[in-house]
């Protein structure tokens, strides 16, 4: 019989085995990576394209092009595409981020012969119908109008612009930018960006030879690149920290966003900074949560994060607090940062954070799709699987003194950009 009065034996995670991606290059140069695992007859095919040719005069061109990919081809309407994908119990989505745009298909293997040709049509024959563009513009302007009433949205928008200016990462979008969209600029971007030289395919799930052969048949031969592709490249330098206040006299809550341009995954200090960030505000038991939510009751939630992007990285702290305690909350955030810079973390707290971080990573690897996500992180950063070995070793062995050193290197409250939307 199990003695339920005794806790199970504890053992720290020492290593995590990842399903290795298998590379393949098709005849037309299309790069493919296969991550095979699991028993379910499901496969995910991701066609990921680097964002290119950023033009400040057309800040929404990349986003709108990706969003409208499934709105019609010369032979299929948006309704036709949706109905055919739904008929086979599949799922098709487009996704846009600062660095990449993607088209992703989830399908049973037995239906790939019927669903993958739809993706082929989208990636080679999208026509961006005028009436669909008008609908997109109308809906997005309405969405923006509603979002601008939310302090949290405005704080995030303001913060990104303060850090990254009018680049793709930080352009301050307005309704007028949607009005400047036209079909010709979408067709031009589509032709330039959606080609094999600018595409990487990730196949994950129960990957069968039939799926690879079908992919090669549809995309490996008659889909060709028309021109050379140069991905967006930006250089950013952290500006002197200052406060940016957007007053809203009737606000009951104030949105706070504090941070600065920082390192990304390519930097040797990144794993250690992730440990530091977790202690400060990266999980529910963090110091910011314990102080500002649990002890002071200023907010329902507060957190911090370290974000890695292709051309940059940034650190931020975000929360919404009662307007009457906004200034007090800012002082408490500064206090918690200064404590980390002055006092070493206790071994008991560090042990808890180690277990949380390693357990979270292990728990996130539940299937081949999540293993593929881990691979994409390192692939697009120009790294290899050794990164995760170093990450695990850093989490397991980092010392309190090293964490204090990192805090003094990367956490200078006066050097951070401080955005407040609401009332102080």
Describe, in plain words, how this protein is organized in 3D.
By secondary structure, this protein is of the alpha+beta class. 43% of the residues lie in helices and 19% in strands. α1 (61-67) crosses α7 (183-193). The radius of gyration is 24 Å and the shape is globular. The N and C termini lie far apart (60 Å). The mean pLDDT is 95.
How many discrete structural domains? 2
CATH topology of the largest domain: Cytochrome Bc1 Complex, Chain A, domain 1
SSE-based structural type = alpha+beta
Number of helices: 15
Helical content stands at 40-55%
Shape: globular
Enumerate the strands of the largest sheet in spatial order, edge to edge or round the barrel.
Answer: 1-2-6-3-5-4
Q: What summary fits the major beta sheet?
A: 6 strands, mixed
Please report which band the strand proportion falls in: under 5%, 5-15%, 15-25%, 25-35%, 35-45% or over 45%: 15-25%
């Amino acid at each position: 019989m199990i003695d339920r009065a005794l806790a199970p034996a504890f053992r720290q995670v020492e290593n995590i085995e990842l399903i290795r991606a298998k590379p393949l290059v098709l005849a037309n140069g299309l790069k493919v990576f296969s991550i095979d695992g699991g028993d379910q007859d499901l496969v995910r095919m991701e066609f990921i394209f680097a964002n290119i040719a950023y033009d400040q005069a057309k800040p929404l061109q990349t986003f709108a092009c990706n969003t409208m990919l499934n709105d019609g081809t010369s032979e299929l309407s948006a309704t036709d595409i949706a109905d055919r994908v739904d008929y086979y119990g599949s799922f098709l989505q487009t996704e846009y981020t600062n660095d990449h745009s993607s088209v992703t298909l989830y399908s049973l293997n037995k239906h790939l012969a019927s669903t993958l040709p739809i993706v082929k049509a989208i990636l080679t024959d999208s026509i961006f119908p005028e009436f669909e563009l008008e609908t997109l513009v109308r809906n997005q302007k309405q969405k923006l109008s509603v979002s601008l009433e939310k302090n949290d949205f405005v704080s995030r928008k303001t913060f990104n612009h303060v850090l990254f200016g009018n680049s793709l990462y930080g352009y301050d979008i307005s309704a007028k930018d949607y009005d400047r969209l036209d079909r010709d600029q979408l067709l031009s971007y589509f032709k330039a960006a959606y080609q094999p030289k600018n595409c990487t395919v990730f196949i994950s799930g129960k990957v069968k030879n039939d799926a690879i052969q079908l992919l090669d048949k549809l995309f490996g031969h008659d889909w060709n690149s028309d021109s050379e592709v140069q991905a967006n490249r930006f250089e950013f330098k952290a500006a002197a920290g200052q406060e940016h206040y957007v007053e809203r006299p009737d606000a009951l809550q104030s949105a706070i966003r504090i941070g600065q341009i920082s390192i990304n995954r390519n930097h040797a200090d990144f794993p250690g900074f992730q440990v530091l960030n977790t202690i400060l505000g990266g999980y529910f038991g963090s110091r910011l949560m314990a102080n500002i939510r649990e002890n002071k009751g200023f907010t329902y939630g507060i957190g911090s994060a370290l974000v890695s992007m292709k051309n940059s990285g940034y650190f931020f702290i975000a929360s919404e607090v009662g307007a009457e305690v906004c200034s007090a909350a800012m002082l408490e955030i500064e206090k918690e940062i200064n404590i980390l810079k002055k006092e070493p973390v206790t071994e008991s707290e560090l042990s808890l954070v180690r277990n949380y971080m390693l357990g979270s990573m292990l728990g996130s690897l539940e299937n081949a799709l999540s293993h593929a996500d881990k691979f994409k992180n390192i692939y697009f950063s120009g790294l290899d699987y050794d990164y995760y070995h170093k990450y695990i070793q850093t989490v397991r062995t980092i010392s309190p003194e090293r964490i204090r050193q990192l805090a003094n290197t990367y956490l200078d409250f006066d050097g951070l950009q401080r955005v407040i939307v609401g009332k102080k």
